[in-house]
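Researcher: Quick test of sequence recovery. Tokens follow.
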């Protein structure tokens, strides 16, 4: 059976839709719980450092299993993988909603993560195999809706739920959708991916787990506990060494866990360079804008979430449209326009003030979301299109893994830049408080100084983000459209 035979069949939109639903609830769940952490901390009487493991542990399981997804996708049918993954996610969701103790809740989150980790690379791989290259932009555009909108609306929706109901409702709401997805897949999901009887290299899996897991944990922790903490630099060091050993080992294996040789394809390598660079900068908006709205401007968490919701809707509307434009015109012009808008809006955000209107921030955030819809999936799809079909599992695994690591690094970098700048500015204003203190204001002078220092840190962090976007914009000028051919179809 070849790849082309699968593509001559009727487009499996119904099957793709159920995969989308499964991926949507899995990805939504990643950011769903963040708003509820204080409530969980109070109910189970655990410390902030302990409750944070509900998010950190989930991320680490993803970091361990996503790189291994290439092996699973090649070794087993997409039907079996999805059923096991969705079954684990459903079981974890059920246990989490009923958990009587924090330990059981944490275990349930790990079970959830073990199911959701493979959803993204599996869905991307099925779409690459099931659709011909000239139609992938449109279907990948819908995939972009899942990938971007789910985490964007998560905080807004969960903020409302936690404010009016128990945090357990977060899991009770997700459970029916995951059950529907599982049952539909059980009776209707067909297989679209060929299997190969490859062996799992245990040492590679161990090196991958330590490598990507160490980097994700180290960089994610750095923003909270500081770069000087031994856990931060020791895990980053161990992760870096393990990754070097992992890459060296893959070049010596006939059946590598991750095929790093695919970076020899220039558009795939370029697409990942742009994607990683954008991910480094993208988190400035996801982290700094809520911080600005809540801490500096004293808006409520619900208002902060609502501010980001229109941007998510813009991305949801634009992702399929961008996919169709990509099918007709390619990724170069789209990405240049998108990255130019992203650069402008990021620079605008580097000039926020204590009086910048809520509505103005909302509009700029929407334009930023529109810009991202022109960049993410078109660039990624163009890169994946250049790969031989046999390397799709490795391409999707590497793409998802690098995005996760880049997001963790970007978050740590921008939070560190913001904190350092804020502390320096706070020291300056403490020496000369009259520079910013308004004697007629009802706000405490110390609070006024703290707000100005925080604002300065946020603005400077956005400025650094803008410089990172410049790098991605320059890289976009080297994009070339991949011809509508498949260089190496899959064969049994």
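Model:
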């Amino acid at each position: 059976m070849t790849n082309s035979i699968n593509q001559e069949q009727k487009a499996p939109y119904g099957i793709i839709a159920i995969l989308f639903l499964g991926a949507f609830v899995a990805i939504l769940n990643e950011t769903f719980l963040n708003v509820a952490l204080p409530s969980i901390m109070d109910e189970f009487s655990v410390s902030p450092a302990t409750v944070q493991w509900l998010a950190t542990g989930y991320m680490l399981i993803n970091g361990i299993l996503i790189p291994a997804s290439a092996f699973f996708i090649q070794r087993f049918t997409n039907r079996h993988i999805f059923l096991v993954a969705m079954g684990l996610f459903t079981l974890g969701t059920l246990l989490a909603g009923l958990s009587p103790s924090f330990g059981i809740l944490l275990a349930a989150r790990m079970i959830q993560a073990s199911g959701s980790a493979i959803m993204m690379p599996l869905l991307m791989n099925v779409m690459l195999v099931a659709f011909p290259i000239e139609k992938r932009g449109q279907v990948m555009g819908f995939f972009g809706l899942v990938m971007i909108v789910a985490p964007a609306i998560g905080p807004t929706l969960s903020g409302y739920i936690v404010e009016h109901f128990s945090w357990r409702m977060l899991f009770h709401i997700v459970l029916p959708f995951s059950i529907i997805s599982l049952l539909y897949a059980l009776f209707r999901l067909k297989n679209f991916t060929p299997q190969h009887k490859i062996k799992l290299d245990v040492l590679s899996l161990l090196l991958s787990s330590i490598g990507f897991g160490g980097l994700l944990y180290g960089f994610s922790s750095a923003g909270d506990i500081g770069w000087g903490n031994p856990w931060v630099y020791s895990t980053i060091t161990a992760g870096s060494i393990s990754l070097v050993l992992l890459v060296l080992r893959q070049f010596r294996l006939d059946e590598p866990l991750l095929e790093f040789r695919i970076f020899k394809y220039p558009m795939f390598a370029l697409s990942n360079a742009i994607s990683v660079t954008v991910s480094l900068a993208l988190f400035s908006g996801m982290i700094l804008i809520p911080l600005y709205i809540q801490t500096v401007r004293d808006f409520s968490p619900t208002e902060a979430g609502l501010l980001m919701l229109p941007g998510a809707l813009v991305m949801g509307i634009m992702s399929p449209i961008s996919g169709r434009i990509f099918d007709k015109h390619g990724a170069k012009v789209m990405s240049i326009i998108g990255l130019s808008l992203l650069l402008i809006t990021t620079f605008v955000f580097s000039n926020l003030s204590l009086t910048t209107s809520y509505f103005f921030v909302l509009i700029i955030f929407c334009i930023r979301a529109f810009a991202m819809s022109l960049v993410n999936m078109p660039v990624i799809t163009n890169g994946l299109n250049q790969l031989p079909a046999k390397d799709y599992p490795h391409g999707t695994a590497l793409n998802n893994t690098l995005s996760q690591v880049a997001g963790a690094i970007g978050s740590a970098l921008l939070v560190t830049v913001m904190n350092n700048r804020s502390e320096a500015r706070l020291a300056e204003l403490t020496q000369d408080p009259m520079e910013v203190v308004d004697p007629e204001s009802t706000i405490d002078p110390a609070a006024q100084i703290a707000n100005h220092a925080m604002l300065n840190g946020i603005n400077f962090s956005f400025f650094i983000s803008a410089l990172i976007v410049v790098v991605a914009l320059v890289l976009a000028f080297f994009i070339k459209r991949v011809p509508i051919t498949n260089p190496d179809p899959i064969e049994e």
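The first helix runs from residue 3 to 8.
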